[in-house]
C-alpha cells in the first residue's frame, strides 16, 4: 500500500503496508493522519529468500485448479475474484505503523470505508457464510450485519452526510445461477460479471436497487450532493471496457 500524498520537498511516495502478503481497499480517516486497509500479512507464507512469494496465490492459478475437475471447470468458464480468507482490516498511522487490528473473524474481511465523522467503518465480510455488508465502530467493536441476501455484497461507501451507504451486489436468481454462485463461493471465489448498484440507510434499512443494467457495475461513490452516484460499468463491450456513469 503506497501513500501518494507527498509532503513538501518529498518526491518519492512511501509505503505504508508491511511489504508482506496482499493489500487492498485503503481509506483515510477524516483526520488524514490515520487510515485503514485490508492485508493478508499475518497469514503470509513465504520463502525468506523470496519475499515476493508471500502473496496468496490466485485460486485459478493454483495447482488445485488443474487437479480438481469442479474448480477447473469454474475457472475455465468464469472470470473470478478471490476472497482470500487471510484478509483482515487494520488501522495504521500515516507512517504505516499498525495502530490496531480491527477484524479477526475467520475468512475474508476487506473492502472497508470510514464514515465522514470517523466513528464507523463499513466493510465486506464472509463471517456469516455469505459475502455481506457489515458496519462496526471505528475501533472494531460492535460489528453489525446490514445485508442478508444470497449473493456477493461489496465495495460499500458512505454518503458525505453519513446517512446512506452505496454498494455493489450480485443476485443469483435461477437454480443454475445459485448453484454456480455457491460452487464458486466454496472455493472463496466470486464472479463479478453481473452486479448492480444498491443504496441503503446506515442501519441497513431501505435497501434500494439503483441500476438494472445486467452487466458488471462497480466502484460506486456518492457525489457531494448526497444524491448522485458515480460508478463504473461494462456497458459497451462486456469484460473489456469500463465506462463511468452517473446514477
Automatic annotation (TrEMBL):
Pfam families assigned: PD40
Taxonomy, superkingdom: Eukaryota
SUPFAM superfamilies: DPP6 N-terminal domain-like
Signal peptide residue numbers: none
Family: Belongs to the TolB family.
Protein name (database record): Protein TolB
Organism: Toxocara canis
Amino acid at each position: 500500500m503506497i501513500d501518494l500524498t507527498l509532503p513538501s520537498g518529498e518526491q518519492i511516495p512511501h509505503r505504508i503496508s508491511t511489504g508482506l502478503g496482499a493489500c487492498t481497499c485503503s481509506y483515510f480517516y477524516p483526520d488524514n493522519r490515520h487510515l485503514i486497509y485490508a492485508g493478508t500479512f499475518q497469514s503470509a507464507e513465504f520463502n525468506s529468500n523470496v519475499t515476493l512469494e508471500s502473496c496468496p496465490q490466485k485460486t485459478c492459478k493454483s495447482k488445485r485448479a488443474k487437479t480438481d475437475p469442479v474448480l477447473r471447470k469454474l475457472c475455465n468458464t468464469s472470470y473470478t475474484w478471490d476472497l482470500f480468507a487471510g484478509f483482515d482490516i487494520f488501522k495504521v498511522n500515516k507512517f504505516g505503523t499498525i495502530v490496531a487490528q480491527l477484524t479477526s473473524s475467520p475468512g475474508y474481511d476487506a473492502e472497508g470505508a470510514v464514515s465522514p465523522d470517523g466513528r464507523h467503518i463499513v466493510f465486506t465480510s464472509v463471517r456469516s457464510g455469505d459475502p455481506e455488508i457489515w458496519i462496526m465502530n471505528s475501533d472494531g467493536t460492535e460489528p453489525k450485519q446490514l445485508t442478508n441476501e444470497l449473493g456477493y455484497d461489496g465495495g460499500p461507501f458512505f454518503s458525505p452526510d453519513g446517512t446512506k451507504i452505496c454498494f455493489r451486489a450480485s443476485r443469483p436468481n435461477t437454480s443454475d445461477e445459485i448453484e454456480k454462485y455457491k460452487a464458486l463461493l466454496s472455493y472463496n471465489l466470486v464472479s463479478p460479471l453481473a452486479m448492480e448498484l444498491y443504496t441503503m440507510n446506515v442501519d441497513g434499512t431501505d435497501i434500494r436497487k439503483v441500476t438494472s443494467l445486467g452487466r458488471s457495475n462497480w466502484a460506486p461513490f456518492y457525489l457531494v450532493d448526497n444524491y448522485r452516484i458515480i460508478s463504473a460499468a461494462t456497458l459497451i463491450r462486456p469484460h473489456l471496457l469500463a465506462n463511468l456513469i452517473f446514477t
